[in-house]
Amino acid sequence: MASVAEFAPVRRELIKSTPPKPFLIGVAGGSASGKSTVCAKIMEQLDQDRVESDQRRVVIISQDSFYRELSPEEAKDAKVGNFNFDHPDAFDHELTLDTLKKIKAGETVQIPIYDSVNATRKKESITIYPTDVIMFEGILTIYFKEFRDMLNMKLFVDSDSDTRLSRRVLRDTQERGRDLEQVLATYANFVKPAFEEFCLPTKKYADVIIPRGSDNTVAIGLIVQHIKDILNGNKSSEIDGVHDPGRRQRHH
Ligand code: ADP
Ligand code: C5P
Ligand code: MG
User: Fold this and answer.
1) Are the CB atoms for 116 and 186 separated by under 8 Å?
2) pLDDT at 18
3) Which has the closest alpha carbon to 244: 235, 252, 13, 24?
4) Are 159 and 30 within 8 A, CB to CB?
5) Rounded CA gap, 21 and 19, in Å?
6) What is 70-125 written as a DSSP string?
7) How far is Cα 224 from Cα 125, in angstroms, rounded to an integer?
8) How confident is the model at residue 237 (pLDDT cuts 50, 70, 90)?
9) What residue ranges line ligand 1, CB within 6 angstroms?
10) Which residues contact 220 (CB under 8 A, 6 or more apart)?
11) According to the model, what pLDDT value does residue 234 have?
């Protein structure tokens, strides 16, 4: 088990002039497949959840943060479960792409905070500092070629659709204040068709498919080991061919 001390916190004063180019992991999969839980377990096993957020060497970014602002008309539809939040057009593509590019370039970025109960963007944002590993999780994180081209590793969390539906019902009724009828209608009208049209076909782009989501401790353990190797400098973080030998020295 890694300890916090094993992965020394990022020393920002050393990386100001030569920021790290992070290892970017895309984590895709259907709604309620367990993407957020898998990412949280990875953070936990790396002890990164106990490190101050600005000192973390592994950071999670959610695609949900990039839902676009709705027009008054769309907001009305969303309130009654009549807006398609599972379509690629529901996201602010330009902002997502621009943010990923900046992250890849080692820049500090601001990530919007999304309120999924009211389908609005909050005024505040979260600052993400340059770091070693970023997990970008969401239903369509490996859908756009521009995103895929920036990702060093692509994961697809694969859980049965009945498992996903039952979890989604519980989450939307308990945490999002929606009634059962609306949740089931939204699922049938938007979530399921969009999953089949846009999300499921992206499984072919995955480097690693994780069956049974967060229950799959073996797959999570393998990914954790890979990240540990990157953090310990045993593996070049740029496995897609761009070698950067000076990189480790910039951290310690
Ligand atoms: P996603 O981010 O893919 O939508 P989440 O990780 O948020 O999925 O999981 C959806 C819901 O299912 C959450 O309420 C979560 O707590 C629950 N959940 C996730 N994995 C499991 C599991 N292995 N067993 C039971 N519940 C789970
Ligand atoms: O965490 P998860 O992958 O489930 O998040 C994506 C899901 O959130 C989408 O399937 C979408 O239907 C749902 N969503 C929602 N309300 C919003 C925005 C997204 O139910 N305002
Ligand atoms: Mg999630």
Assistant:
1) no
2) 58
3) 235
4) yes
5) 7
6) PPHHHHHHHHTT-S-TTSGGGB-HHHHHHHHHHHHTT--EEEEEEETTTTEEEEEE
7) 28
8) low
9) 29, 31-37, 167, 171, 213-215
10) 38, 41, 42, 45, 210, 214
11) 73
Ligand nearest to C-alpha 192: 2
- Under 8 Å between Cβ of 229 and 152: no
Q: How confident is the model at residue 1 (pLDDT cuts 50, 70, 90)?
A: very low
Rounded distance, CA 206 to CA 210, Å? 10
What is the rounded CA–CA span in Å between residue 180 and residue 182?
5
CA of 3 to the centre of ligand 1 (A): 26
**Strand, coil or helix: 159:** coil
139 lines ligand 2 (CB under 6 A): yes
Q: Whose CA is nearest to atom 19 of ligand 1?
A: 34
The DSSP element (H or E) to which 156 belongs, if any, is strand 153-158
Q: Assess whether the C-beta atom of 90 lies below 6 angstroms from ligand 2.
A: no
The residue behind tokens 């309620």 is 32
| pLDDT for 54 | 87
DSSP 8-class letter at 198: I
Is 118 touching ligand 2 by the criterion CB < 6 Å? no
Identify the DSSP state of 6.
T
Closest CA to 192 of 159, 164, 158, 155: 164
What is this model's ipTM? Answer: 0.98
State which residues have CB under 5 angstroms from ligand 3, the bound ion: 36
Sign for the pseudo-dihedral over CA of 99, 104, 105, 107: positive
Q: How far is the CA of 185 from the centre of ligand 1 (A)?
A: 21
Question: Whose alpha carbon is nearest atom 14 of ligand 1?
Answer: 171
